[in-house]
Amino acid sequence: MVDYPRAFVTGYPIRHSRSPLIHGYWLRQFGLEGSYQAVEVTPDAFSGFILTARDNGFAGGNVTIPHKEMAFSLCEKRDSAAEEIGAVNTLWFENGILHGGNTDAYGFLANLDSLSPGWSNRKSALVLGAGGASRAVVFALKERGFTDIRIVNRTIERARELADRFEVSGGAHGWDAMPELLLGASLIVNTTSLGMSGKDELAIDLTGADSDALVTDIVYVPLETPLLQAARSRGLETADGLGMLLHQAVPGFERWFGKRPEVTAELRNIVLADM
Ligand code: ATR
To answer: What GO molecular function annotation could you give as one example from this UniProt entry (predicted)?
Structure first.
């Protein structure tokens, strides 16, 4: 058995994951002996993989689609973000016990903190989408003290569920309410898959948006989504989705390998070159 720390990222499929590139960069930067590998595991095999991971020499790992909810139920202990969001993306063992955390909300906040200090002085947010990514974003915004969070989704029932779960004051809305919802929204976050390569474009008219609004997208392929292009052409501040991906990886690396890594411009360029 190897005696250096090992970590994994597992999903199904997993071949497009950039996580090995990110953690491999940090391992090299610190000159650490350690490994981080992608392991493709089907949903049927997932619990067996996780429950034997420690015996197989893993300090922990990341979990991505479609395993985040299953990971949540396998953990004996979970951090508060995972509990609130209902999904786990980071696993580690402590005294032999499987712990789970969710670093997506942390990644979302840390990215905006680094790109736009003071961004969270804004208190009114419009969140597009009501899936798993949206849960992390809404949780993060509540943590940061946003008092007016409006959730808009194609399927209004999902928006309602999310608004109830986090008791948001701005309520749940269908897509056609967008023009009014934009008025006064000083942060606009896309958490839907619209705008991603191969998917439909996110058609949104930003005319009513505040002139000091910050527009951010969790989609990062392509980096310049149509939403961000539209925002920039109106002179609005923007933040792309790649930073969230990079920042959400930081807490896991620190747990498994014992060093707190940095999200550098060089790392960003390495990941961009791979896209
Ligand atoms: P994730 O966990 O990555 O957030 P998800 O749970 O599948 O993924 O959620 C995807 C989000 O994108 C949802 O808000 C979804 O809207 P619905 O709840 O109505 O499905 C949204 N989405 C995906 N395709 C869309 C489309 N063509 N038009 C509008 N919204 C779309």
So the answer is: NADP binding
